[in-house]
Amino acid sequence: MKYDIIGDIHGCYEECLKLIDKLGYQSNGQNYYHPEKRMLVFLGDLTDRGPSSLKVIELVYQLVIVDKIAYYTPGNHCNKLYRYFLGNKVQIQHGLETTVEEYQALSNRDQKMIRQKFITLYEQADLYIQLPDVKAVVAHAGIRSDYIGRYDKKVQSFVLYGDVTGAKHPDGRPIRRDWAKDYHGDQWIVFGHTPVLKPRQLNKTINIDLGCVFGNKLAAFQLPEEKVVTVTSNQPLQAEKFHQYDE
């Protein structure tokens, strides 16, 4: 099988459509398909911050649940939205407020429909996706070699939030360890979560969150080709949002 792994969309629906079109996926008016039977893989953070989070949910639901030509694994923003839809008490900030605003503008009937679609997507998703045929693991914020095959709370925290130290930057962002420097496995680890201006490849890991919602690009990593395909964001550039690794 051949795969197209798409980074953090964050409500950038138009860019997502443009990217899947560029990757060769087609619609017959009702269903999406790829003439070469490729599969899409979404690595989490479908919603929040961007202009059209609910349309992204609808699209990914169609591709994963209906058309069955895609896989989805959640990110930290997905986890928070899931807890919100369950009625749990969550803080409506850090981007969730944009999704909640869209949701509250819907009729009760439409709210029920989008809520059920997202809950179905989330509950059927694996914490991370193993693709043994292309020797790859797709995990939202990455995963250590010794965590692959585990699904406990420690691994869940790592996959959703990264290798956090507990300390914070002056602007409130958590300080994370650069786990990829210590990765020496033979499988690709494809991840996002931390926005970077260009794909960061190190030790058979690749970060493909190119910060579409912050005005840069939306990226897909193709396997087994090991090729990155991008489309340009429609959003204004916020240069301060991008992470600089200490190489």
UniProtKB/TrEMBL annotation:
Q: What Pfam family does this protein match (any one)?
A: Metallophos
Question: Residue span of the signal peptide, if any?
Answer: none
Q: What is its EC number?
A: 3.6.1.17
Please give the GO cellular component terms listed in this UniProt entry: cytoplasm
> Ranges for the Calcineurin-like phosphoesterase domain?
1-196
Its EC top class is: hydrolase
Q: Which InterPro entries match?
A: Ap4A_hydrolase, Calcineurin-like_PHP, Metallo-depent_PP-like, MPP_PrpE-like, Ser/Thr-sp_prot-phosphatase
Q: Does the keyword Hydrolase apply?
A: yes
Record key words, sorted? Hydrolase
CDD domains, per database record: MPP_Prp_like
Give the GO molecular function terms.
Answer: bis(5'-nucleosyl)-tetraphosphatase (asymmetrical) activity; phosphatase activity
Identify the NCBIfam families for this entry. PRK13625.1 (NF010148)
Please identify the protein, giving its name as recorded: Bis(5'-nucleosyl)-tetraphosphatase [asymmetrical]
Organism (species): Amphibacillus xylanus (strain ATCC 51415 / DSM 6626 / JCM 7361 / LMG 17667 / NBRC 15112 / Ep01)
Which taxonomic lineage is given here?
Bacteria, Bacillati, Bacillota, Bacilli, Bacillales
GN (gene name):
prpE
